[in-house]
Every structure is written in structure tokens, then in C-alpha cells.
Amino acid sequence: MAERARVMALEANFCRVELEQPGPGGIEHLLCVRRTRLGKTGQQICVGDRVQIDGIDWPEGRGAVAALEPRNSLLERPAVANCSRVVVAVALEQPQLDPLQLTRFLITAERTGVAVELVLTKADLLRAAERAAWCERLQGWGYGPLLVSAQQGAGIAELRQRLAQPGIAVLCGPSGVGKSSLINALVPELALRVSAVSGRLQRGRHTTRHVELFPLVPGALLADTPGFNRPDLPLEPGDLGPLFPEIRQRLVAGVCRFKNCLHQGDPGCAVGSDWDRFPIYTTCLEAVQAQAAREQGRSIGSAGLKQRGSRREPLLDQRLRQVSRRRQRQSDVDDD
Ligand SMILES: Nc1nc2c(ncn2[C@@H]2O[C@H](COP(=O)(O)OP(=O)(O)OP(=O)(O)O)[C@@H](O)[C@H]2O)c(=O)[nH]1
Ligand SMILES: [Mg+2]
Ligand SMILES: [Zn+2]
Questions:
Q1: Ligand 1 atom nearest to CA at 94
Q2: Which residues lie across from 15 on neighbouring strands?
Q3: Ligand 1 atom closest to Cα of 175?
Q4: The predicted structure's pLDDT at residue 39
Q5: Where does the pLDDT of residue 36 fall: very low under 50, low under 70, confident under 90, or very high at 90 and above?
Q6: CA 247 – ligand 3 centroid, Å
Q7: DSSP E strands: which ranges in the chain?
Q8: What percent helix, strand, coil does the chain show, rounded to 5?
Q9: Ligand 1 near 231 CB (within 6 A)
Q10: Confidence band (pLDDT; 50, 70, 90) for 319?
Q11: Architecture of 237-313 per CATH?
């Protein structure tokens, strides 16, 4: 009979799962064969997935993943399924906070459709006035940033309170911002590996190599993830706007004159251009448009005109779609 379990970590050809009901002798974890793709749908297994395990060898603690249950949400990169909140972590210093990079992380987080939180790390490295200026600026973006210092313990109790809720919280952000250090501050027994930033730009050294779930309090899981520097953007220009809280908020109050408005500050646009992230939004929009034009050129080149448009997916499917093989590969690789 199959047992239900949660994927806690993916390692080479295996995945480590936690059983929903402990097995004989109180066994809670099994090491399972990891088929890269499952069944007819060809879905890939992600950390956070609910799976069914069969062929269990209890004395050896081994089994095989037989089926993948439907997902509630999917963070594409780092790939984590069924998360109920995404915590974007960026450092105030070492490495310096880059608003465009932070925006790309926030966009990836917003695409999941679950709650998004923003944590500013290494608060000990900036003076109070500079910290306050960042907080005020990011509040204007629609986020309530939490300032923390893993080194001095500031903000850790509040972070614990925010994360100690049922479900999976994913900590993601650039390398070296102190994600693993934060998890160590929250759960000291884990003693996760951390390492010093290096170079002129004080970049991280990709210390965490795999996504892994850790229990924070009963029922609440926290995912540590490998840092990377450049999250992808959505494929369709029209998908970008709703991922900015400032745009969402302005569209509650007003309606743009044109239905497919890309909010470029034209007359008749209800969003306008008098907001801090407007230039960043524009930069992202141009990148998405350039990427869409390249994709279209490629599909015309390879399949002829009649195939145009066939790549479009409905929004809901896009949100829950499986991680593409390319993305999965990418997330395993450094991108500096
Ligand atoms: N000053 C200061 N340094 C910190 C703080 N938190 C972490 N660090 C340092 O930042 C460096 C990187 O920390 P990590 O926890 O390895 O960073 P990470 O985000 O997990 O990095 P990756 O695993 O590469 O993605 C280490 O040298 C930490 O000691 C902090 O609150 N203040
Ligand atoms: Mg780490
Ligand atoms: Zn508009």
C-alpha cells in the first residue's frame, strides 16, 4: 500500500521524504529513488511536493516515489512546491542592496500567488538613519520590510513569529545575504554551513547548494535555498503589471483607458509614472518585451507562422505549471 509523504530534499538520484504517518518502529523519513519525471504528465518532483511512496523496505528506510499529488502553488526558481509564503531576503550591505535585483526576486515571489514578505538582513552594517530610509522606500513599494541581524539577534523573534504558521515558508534571495545564517539564528541545532562574502562587490559564494525543508515549529516548515543573482521575468509583457503592488493598488482606484494598457505613463493610464519603481518597472517591461520578441522570432524560425501563439498558456496553468527542464537545470547551476 502506498504511503503519503512530503519531499524534504532532493539529492543526486534520491529524494528524502517525511512520512505523513510514521511507519513501523516510528520511522519518519525514507530515502526514495528519484525518477526525474513522473507518469504521463511528465511532472518533475520538487521539494515541498506531496507524494505517494510504494515499494517500501522498512528496515532499510528506502522506497520509491509512485505518484505526485496536485500542487497548491509553485515557486519556479528556487523550485519549491506548495509554499504558503515566500520570504525574499536581501542584505542592506555586503552585498549592497540592488533595487532592480530585489524587484526581480519580488516578481518571482509574486508569481506564486501566495503571501510575499521582505526581510532586510545585516541591519548591523548600516546606521539607523540609512536603515530607516530603506524601510520608508520599500514601504512605498507595498511591502512591510522586517529588519534583521543574524549576528546581533535583532528582529529574529519577530521573524520567528511571522514564520511560525502552518505550511511552508521559503527563504530566497541573492547569495551571501545571510539566509542560512538566519535559519541558524531561528533553529541553532541545524548548524547550517555559511561562508563569508568575497571580492570587491562582496558577493556570496554559493554556499547552500540544494533546497531543503527544515521544521521550525510543529506544522511550520522553512526552506533554505541556494542564492543566485538574476531571477527570470515572466514571458508575457501583460503579466508584469499585476506583480507590482503599486500598480495593483492604483488599479483599485482607477481604470486605464485601453484594455491591454502596459502602464507606460501615457494619457488615459490610471497608473501614471509618479511612483518610485516606475523606471524599474519600465526596465523590466523592456526586458520582457525583448525576450518575447526573441521567442517569437525563434518559434517563427523553427515552426513557421501557423504555429504563432500556440505557446500561450492560461494564467492559472502558468502559475501551477511544472518546472521546465531548463529551469530545473538552471537552478542547480551558478549563474554569475
Ligand atoms: N554583519 C553581518 N553579517 C552577517 C549577518 N548574517 C550573515 N552574515 C554573514 O554573511 C555571510 C554569508 O552568510 P550565509 O548565511 O552563508 O548567506 P546565504 O544567503 O545563505 O548564502 P548562499 O548559501 O550562498 O545563498 C557570512 O559570512 C555570515 O556570517 C548579519 O546579520 N550581519
Ligand atoms: Mg546559504
Ligand atoms: Zn495603464
A1: 10
A2: 10, 32
A3: 25
A4: 64
A5: low
A6: 8
A7: 3-11, 14-19, 29-33, 37-38, 43-44, 50-57, 62-68, 74-75, 80-81, 83-91, 115-121, 146-147, 167-172, 212-217, 220-224
A8: 30, 25, 45
A9: no
A10: very low
A11: Orthogonal Bundle (1.10)
| CATH domain 74-224 topology | Rossmann fold (3.40.50)
Query: Which of 36-50, 51-65, 114-128, 166-180 bottoms out in mean pLDDT, i.e. has the lowest?
Result: 36-50
Give the environment of ion ligand 2: residues with CB less than 5 A: 179-180, 207-208
Cα 207 to ligand 2 centroid, rounded to whole Å: 5
The residue to mutate among 96, 172, 181, having the most atoms of ligand 1 within 8 angstroms of its beta carbon, is 181
CATH code, residues 3-68: 2.40.50.140
Count CA atoms closer than 13 A to 189's CA, side-chain side: 3
Domain positions in the chain are 3-68, 74-224, 237-313
Question: Distance from the CA of 203 to the center of ligand 1, in angstroms?
Answer: 10
Count of all residues that appear for the chain in the document: 336
pLDDT score of 15 more than 60 = yes
Residues above pLDDT 90, as percent of the chain: 78
Please tell me the predicted confidence (pLDDT) of residue 224.
Answer: 98
Find out whether the beta carbon of 164 lies less than 6 Å from any atom of ligand 1: no
Q: Is 180 in the pocket of ligand 1 (CB under 6 A)?
A: yes
- pTM of the complete model: 0.89
- 302-328 average pLDDT score: 47
